[in-house]
Amino acid sequence: QSLDEFKKLKNSDGRFKEWLSRDVQGLLSLYEAAHMAFNGEDILDEALSFATKSLKSIGLPTQEKISPSFQKQIDFALRLPAWKCPSRSLARHSIDNFYSEDSALNQNLLTFAKLDFNMVQSFHQQELRELSK
């Protein structure tokens, strides 16, 4: 069962392993995945609680520093998890607010992502014009 994978993230006393709170990218992924829980999937409820608490502590003086753009991504996810956003809106928001400010990212890939978004948006606008006629 797929929930068994989450059990591997717990230690013998039933708590999530401490190293998880130091893997910020993994923690954000765990946070987003835990939002997909169905009723009765207690381990995902626990994962959500653990990930939320850990993500909120990131950036505090006692924690290691992360890039400002990644901190923005975490803050945004805590306010509005990805599953609550239409994927195209989330993509555009991420391009403009997170990835454009990260100098470590490949600028050619960022340019391609912007072009792809604009082309798809143009296609949808054209379809909407056709349908509204």
UniProtKB/TrEMBL annotation:
Source species, domain of life: Eukaryota
Cofactor(s) the record lists: Mg(2+)
Transmembrane segments: none
Domain Terpene synthase N-terminal intervals: 3-78
Keywords noted in UniProt: Lyase
Family annotation (Gene3D superfamilies): Farnesyl Diphosphate Synthase, Terpene synthase, N-terminal domain
Pfam families named among the record's database cross-references: Terpene_synth
Database matches in InterPro entries: Isoprenoid_synthase_dom_sf (IPR008949), Terpene_synth_N (IPR001906), Terpene_synth_N_sf (IPR036965), Terpene_synthase-like (IPR050148), Terpenoid_cyclase/PrenylTrfase (IPR008930)
GO molecular function: terpene synthase activity
Single GO BP term: terpenoid biosynthetic process
PANTHER family per the UniProt record, alphabetical: (-)-GERMACRENE D SYNTHASE (PTHR31225:SF221), OS04G0344100 PROTEIN-RELATED (PTHR31225)
Protein name: Terpene synthase N-terminal domain-containing protein
Natural source organism: Linum tenue
